[in-house]
Amino acid sequence: MRVFDDICVILDILKLIKEAILMLERTYTTLADCYLYLLRIATFFKQMPMNDYRSLKNSCIKAFNERYKEFDEDIYLLAFFLHPQYKGAGIHNTQFERIQKTALNIWKNLGYKKTSGLELKAQFRNKRSLNHIGNSISNDDVQKMIDNLFEEEDILNENEDEEEEYEEPSNIQKESVDEMLNIEQVIDLGP
Questions:
Q1: Known InterPro entries for this protein (predicted)?
Q2: Angstrom distance (rounded) from CA 109 to CA 106
């Protein structure tokens, strides 16, 4: 049964990647949609069980981090922040300045004056404070947002009642260092 479980995990990974590719091919895809799928993939990798799939999980996270470098752009983060389904959870406080600066640069390049830029900045702060009472970000809010956006049950679809004891062959060297998702420096993916 262990082989079947391993295949199911790999199929779940491939399904997620397939859905992301299909979404990117749509004509109405926005920058925020791209960022949301990155979050979905990152959440999947974060929730993968480390004890059974350490090597696979670390390899996936390394590959994800390489691709995330291409999307770690201020404009993508701004698009995510402005997306109508975004409810204010998850963005680290330190990244909010990055979002504001990007919006103000666009505003300035469109020819607007400093006074309207200050008004825009106030609107950003107002949106942020309405969504974050006391600037506290709840991990539960992030998870709810991701769950609501994708309306799926558990990402891995694991059944914990049917776990079997598995001993890893001795010729496979275990990795002692766990990879970290770089996107978590920007967005809190929850527990």
A1: RNaseH-like_sf (IPR012337)
A2: 5
